[in-house]
């Protein structure tokens, strides 16, 4: 949903109208058509045992992002700043905060990921639990080891590629099982139904 004109037909970044209050927006993602495919997503622990974080791995992104509401819910202190987000023939300035988000790898080691806060990270439609259950059965892995996050709280970028799942543990019918420091996840083509999904874009820190 566009934060400028409230339209559901395009994202804030692609809106031609000026924001009503000022020249900044709070959310900026680009929207593009894609095939029904699995992207690398998994659930990781936060600093506390009861904190579960839905993570999307995106080696094509230059910066990591976190949902601002979630960061505040974890009582993380953010550094206020302004970002310039670059998309296709479009740029926007976003008033946001820089957070250091604690996540734990599968060995229990704590890592602090620097993330820019956004109101929305991705509109990607995640497969349902039945799809995941069938994939786990096909790859002979436990559903407890390959978990589908209910939503995406954090996008992990190339800056933190040492945490990404790069080891291929299996390849069946266009789907691959990957493993890494944070756990296991699936990636691949699940069909040809066209849909839309959104991701944050290149971010550059600027002065107000």
Q: What is the distance, rounded to the nearest whole angstrom, between the alpha carbons of the first and last residues?
A: 26 Å
Q: Approximately what portion of the residues adopt beta-strand conformation? A: 35-45%
Shape: globular
Mean pLDDT: 79
Structural class: mainly beta
Q: How many E strands? A: 14
Helix-strand pattern:
EEEEEHEEEHEEEEEE
Radius of gyration equals 17 Å
The tally of helices reads 2
Helix fraction?
under 10%
Structure description:
The structure is a single chain. This protein has 208 residues and is mainly beta. Helices cover 8% and strands 42% of the residues. The chain has two helices and 14 strands; from the N terminus they run βββββαβββαββββββ. The strands form three sheets. The protein has an eight-stranded mixed sheet. Strands 2-12-11-10 form a four-stranded antiparallel sheet, with helices on one face. The chain is globular, with a radius of gyration of 17 Å.
